[in-house]
Amino acid sequence: MLRFMPVGDSMTIGSAGEHTWRYRMWRHLRDTYGGPFAVVGPRETLYDKATDAPTSYEYADPAFPCGHLAGWGEGWQHMVPLIGDAVRSCRADVLMVSLGLIDLGFYTDADQTADNARRFVAEARAAGPRVRIVVLPVIPNVRAAADAPFAAQVARFNELLAKALADLDEPRSPLLLASPPPSYDINLDTYDGTHPNASGEHKIAAAFADAMHQAWGVGEPYRV
């Protein structure tokens, strides 16, 4: 049994009424993995914009294992103290991580955010010495399109993230940097310049799926 845990911010938890890329990823694994697997995590809810809280179970299709470790407004610094317990309690084997945009937007600069990513890896490995981690770089959003200093921070963090994963990679606990979705367009693949719509969900899921297939032989290439 291979246990996959999605870890992320608002783009990963999703909000009421959405499928989420987590759902798209589960369907892909269900159809292509070829062995027993589970999608796990200590949380299950969506964010409810009406109540400004992660209290909704109103998935567009609720019939999937909706475990995750994601939160609206949460970033690397928030996940560092949580990831160890999550890995232990859910016995996670593979972490699919999409974090960084909220950190850079509100909490930490690129260098501080990269330091938190390194701490995250250390905490995850302390709980699961053989855990595998695949990380999606930050996808620039509408703010990056209009705010040059913020765009520069996003670009610098992505460079530092790639270096951190290369530095920390080891055979028993491999680290993998996914490629940003090449055709991702914030005008077409999001509903507000940041959060993915259906096509964006597919493209984020494909980035994780294709990276794991190419590097680790997990499943098959992603097909919509």
Which helices and strands occur, and which strands form pairs?
Layout: E1 2-8, H1 10-13, H2 21-32, E2 37-39, E3 46-48, E4 53-56, E5 69-70, H3 76-90, E6 94-98, H4 101-107, H5 110-127, E7 132-135, H6 142-146, H7 148-168, E8 175-177, H8 198-216
Parallel strand pairs: 1-2, 1-5, 1-6, 6-7, 7-8
Antiparallel strand pairs: 3-4
Structure class: alpha/beta
Helix content: 40-55%
> Mean pLDDT across all residues, rounded?
97
H/E element sequence = EHHEEEEHEHHEHHEH
The whole-angstrom Rg is 16 Å
Q: Could you characterize what this model shows?
A:
The longest helix has 21 residues, at 148-168. The chain is globular. The protein has eight helices and eight strands. With 224 residues, it is an alpha/beta fold.
